[in-house]
Amino acid sequence: APVVGVLALQGDVREHLIALAAADAVARPVRRPEELAEVDGLVLPGGESTTISKLAHLFGVMEPLRARVRDGMPVYGTCAGMIMLADKILDPRSGQETVGGIDMIVRRNAFGRQNESFEAAVDVAGIGGDPVEGVFIRAPWVESVGAGAEVLAEHDGHIVAVRQGNALATSFHPELTGDHRVHALFVDIVRADRAAESL
Ligand code: GLN
C-alpha cells in the first residue's frame, strides 16, 4: 500500500490519518525532513496556515517540502492546506509563506466573514455518486487559477477544489465527514505516481 504522510505541525492531523487509513493507505504523521523523505505522498491538513508555515520553517521541513512538491510528489491540502499549496495568497499575514505547487491565487477566510462555518453539498469532478458533503470552516476560496490548474468544484460561484498534476486542494474538510471518497481519489493519485516511477 502507498505510504501517505500528514504534515503534523498543527491542525486536524488525526482526522486525516484516519481517513487515509480508511482509503487503504499506510498513514503516518510527518514533522521532520527524514520522515518526509519516506512517504509517497503528503496531506497538508486544515488548521491555521500562518502557524503551519512558521512551524514548517522551524522544523526545517519547508524547503524539503517545496523541493518534493516541485519534483512531483502527490500532495493534498484541505483548507489551511489549500492555502499552503497556492502559488499566491491574496492577503497573506506577515511572515506567511506557502509551499506552492498549484498555479492559483487564494483568498483566506473568504467565506468566513459572512458565515464562520457551514456545510454544503459540493459536486466534485472525478467523484461519482452523490455530491460530497463540504464542511467549510473559515474557509478560503480560489480567486483564480492559471492555465495549468483544473477546477474540480465550485460553491456559490467560487472555486473550492482544484487539481494541478499530482497536487489536489479543497477549501472544505472531507476528513471531518466520514466520507472517504476525496481521500480515495488522492490515494489513487499516489498509487498512479508510484506505478509511473517504477516503470
Ligand atoms: N482560516 C484558516 C487559515 O487561514 C484556515 C481554516 C481551516 O483550515 N479550517 O489558515
Main attributes?
single chain, alpha/beta, Rossmann fold, seven-stranded mixed β-sheet, binds glutamine, transferase activity, Pyridoxal 5'-phosphate synthase subunit PdxT, PdxT/SNO_CS, EC 4.3.3.6
Give your account of this protein's structure.
This protein has one domain: Class I glutamine amidotransferase (GATase) domain (Rossmann fold). The mean pLDDT is 96. It is globular, with a radius of gyration of 15 Å. 28% of the residues lie in helices and 31% in strands. It has 6 helices and 12 strands. It has 199 residues and is of the alpha/beta class. The chain has helices at residues 13-22, 33-36, 49-58, 62-70, 80-85, 181-197, and strands at residues 3-7, 26-30, 41-44, 75-78, 86-89, 102-107, 117-122, 132-137, 141-145, 150-155, 158-164, 167-170. Glutamine binds at residues 46-49, 79-80, 83, 108-109, 137-138. Keywords: Glutamine amidotransferase, Hydrolase, Lyase, Pyridoxal phosphate, Transferase. It comes from Streptomyces nodosus.
Give the helix/strand layout.
Elements: E1 3-7, H1 13-22, E2 26-30, H2 33-36, E3 41-44, H3 49-58, H4 62-70, E4 75-78, H5 80-85, E5 86-89, E6 102-107, E7 117-122, E8 132-137, E9 141-145, E10 150-155, E11 158-164, E12 167-170, H6 181-197
Parallel strand pairs: 1-2, 1-3, 3-4, 4-12, 5-6
Antiparallel strand pairs: 6-9, 7-8, 10-11, 11-12
